[in-house]
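Components:
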Amino acid sequence: MKPIISFCTDYVLYLFKGGIKYWAWLGFLSIFVVLWAYGNYAQLTQGMIITGLTDQVSWGLYLANFVFLVGVAAGAVTVVFPAYVYKHKALHEVTVLGEMLAIAAVVMCGLFILNHMGRPDRLWHLIPIIGIYNFPSSMLTWDIIVLMGYLLLNVFGGFYYLYKKYTGEPLNNKFYLPIIYVAIVWALSIHTVTAFFMNTMPARPMWHHGMMPIRFISTAFAAGPALIIIVFSIVRNNTKLWIKDEAIDMLSTTVVWCLGIALFLTFSEIVTEFYHPTEHSLGLQYLMFGHNGLNNLVPWFWTSLVGLVATFILLLIPSVRKNRALLPWICAVTFLSVWVEKGMGLMLPGSIPTPIGEFAQYSPTMLEIFNCIGNWAIGFIILTLLTKAGVGVLVGDLRYEGAATTQEAENEEEAGYASA
Amino acid sequence: MTERTIPLTNITDDLPCDSAVEVCTPGEGKPESGITRRKFVKNTSGMSAASLLGTAALMTNSDDAHATSEWAEWFQGNYRLMSDEEKQEAVDRLERRYSAEYGKDVTVDTTPAQEGVLFGYALNIQKCIGCRRCVKACVEENNQSRGEAQETEWIRVLKMEKGEFSEAKMGEGYPDDYGIQVGGNAYTAAGVVIEGEHYYEPEKVPEEDSFYMPIACMQCEKPPCVKVCPVRTTYREPDGIVVIDYNWCIGCRMCIGACPYWARRFNWGEPNLPKDQMNPVTHYLGNRPRMKGVVEKCTFCIQRTRKGRYPACVEVCPVGARKFGNLLDPESEVRRVLASKRVFRMKADMNTYPKFFYYVD
Amino acid sequence: MRVLDTGIRRSTSACLRVIRCGVLVLGLTTAATSVAQDCFESRQNASKVTVKESADGQVNVKCSETTGGVLWWGDPYDATVPMGEMPIEADYDHGEAVVKSRTKQLAMFPVCGTACHNGTFPPPNDDKTPRTLTMHTDVVPDATNLQHGRGAIWCLDCHHSETRNHFTDHSGNLIDMNEPQKLCGKCHGPAYRDWRGGLHGKRIGEWASTGKKRWFVCTECHNPHDVQQGERNSGFAQLESEPAPRLPKGLENADHERHHGGH
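Structure:
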């Protein structure tokens, strides 16, 4: 028991040790949390009328961010998978950081869902026994299960790993490896199910096709590792943890291939929908070209497409991919482009036109944007704290008093990993 | 409560109302002419969690009737799972709150589905003149929110073009090198539902070049909205009406996404229902006042139809385009439509099997 | 002779009888206009209903502020009489049926069969050749171009030539003016059949096939003297529509739906 208590206290105390950049970053994010608190207060008291949502477009920015962030969460598997299936050594060393990202992303998903709900106070209606859980009928209940499961897997896997590193004890692979392998498959499932909850609605032809899950996963595996590359670059430049080049190279390769697949799928969809456009193509038409002067989304679509194509081409060039100064910026563009493409670009045209053909426009209100940015800020605060402590454990700053040296522990763990 | 003058089957009147320990909220007088019919049978053993909590809140908190009943409502279970006693208690609480809020005797009915009844609806699309009286009648009846901030209408009438085919457009075909493949009149939107106009406002209807298509909840036999609801707050009643327990809805709007007919509306803010316009004859699953953050929709005027009366939109239609009745009764108007007219269901490809039929003479 | 629904605004003085008649008409019209709030059911200017509040605050009807049309029936059987007196010959076992009396809505009805047309004067004239009328031009402005039947019928094909407060069937028998369906059914067989079956026209009250209903009769919706509506060629007159829904947030106007381009 003592090491656990010690781990917890040391962990928390470590979060308070940081340089000026660290505190400045957290302080900066906190500003948005203040706006978030204001926005949420307004929404809780007045209702969702403070958003730009309407009966016509009733799924908007909140759900768009949710869908995107499920992808980011799933994207953590691009670190775990090569590390444990292909025995990628460099990535294996930092797997836990991927898991930390997944935790932060799932928390953000939860925050966005809470914002999306009209009656968050009635969440308890979902709890089996005291409430009604419409499983397996409702796809949303599947999504809750996979997301909660994924959160738990990453919390257990990640913190178990950190704890063992902290105490210097070897990992119990019989316990740890199953979590890892289940988590790998589970990561695919969260995004698949999230795609299913949208594409199982024939009422929304824009989404109602079998390509949705794979599009979701390919974009997720572009945006996810793109964010991880950014985090790794920051960690490399600001901490004692030197994430190896091979790790970043592996991730950038993943980004470029997944981007390629995603673009191919987008291209296939456009050809399918436009060769002989039907009423079912109206959403895509609205997204790409607008409709009789309603064209809120058009610039977003094209900017995002240009971003995706440009970063894809750039990342195909090995010298660019290996340019450590440039890579995070390219990844940032990829990340934002996917955010637009998969968030607003996919969510809104599902509602425009409505199932009975009404065209509407949606623009989020300032309060809605506050809440969204606030959710992101909270997520980034969590990500920062988790990453900081994770790095602290990895480099040995956070260690149990009686622990074996970092090197010894690492050797032991290596042995277990190799034999697995 | 003064009953409506129409001699209709009134099932709730048969409820046992003999003994009664009436919990009355302090500070809130019982409405004069009384909701005595609603006195609920209650013995100590039958006290539900909600009532206990409500009473607890009452004792510890304040004499704010509204807050107290909302607190008790928050704890109340899903309507279908409530015992008769709990239902009565919930209804009683609501009647007290609504009556105080709207300054009139409000009744909240719980009449269940009648056996041997499956409701169906038929609309003569040839007769509809697009006057939107059904839309407004529905609002009069069903206590929707009105006003600038949030206007809720359950029926939407589309104006459809009769279309125009012209010789002038013959030359607009393409490509023309080896013969035109897409005719110049290709984009004439005659009879294209998805290009209907929603906001038409001519001086008089019907317009010469148009016909009209009203759309509301189709009360599908296989409703996609029910399937996606994570908490089963929306469900299909035995008489085929798809209803919502407003007190159980979590506002996730999955059902809005799943409905192919755009029949569901959301209370984005607290609904605005002026006291003088409020219809006091309500049903728990129908037109009782809603709260913010929940979904609502057409219920075939459950508060009327369960008592034998036609829905408000059927009665108001000036051209008699709307027919309603029991699909199990071969003599009903709707069955006679099915027997003798040409009918279609909207978006039959969705496999939702609406019990709302469009027909032509 | 069908007398006006809304009252005559002018009279001609072709003969003494006509003057006497005109004075009567004017008198009755003024008497009938002193009402609180009126709205119309289906046929504008011809299916008037007056809002009445009962003791418990319930109203018989609610009216549209924009169009003056009935929007809601509190009491569907308000001011009705049993249809039993005038059997509807429904093709099925219908329940209790009531109607609103048409003759009560016709201001001149009580006197028309005695004061103006007593059966002997003016002399009954069976000549059905269309000709200009000196009276009733408010109902039929141009009797040589009657907007019903496309020239194939004229006044006395429907109105009984001797008993002017009745209609006539094919054999010259009387039809009560409260039973226009029997008259219209002479020619409009399919519509009559559908009406009897509850498919054509309108009923309010209880939905059950055995329930109590108020039946709307032909002339409560159709204007028999202008059923063609000239160019419109449609049986139901145009009405003002209720206002369009409010535009959703994010839209300033609905111009985008006014022009179509295909896809």
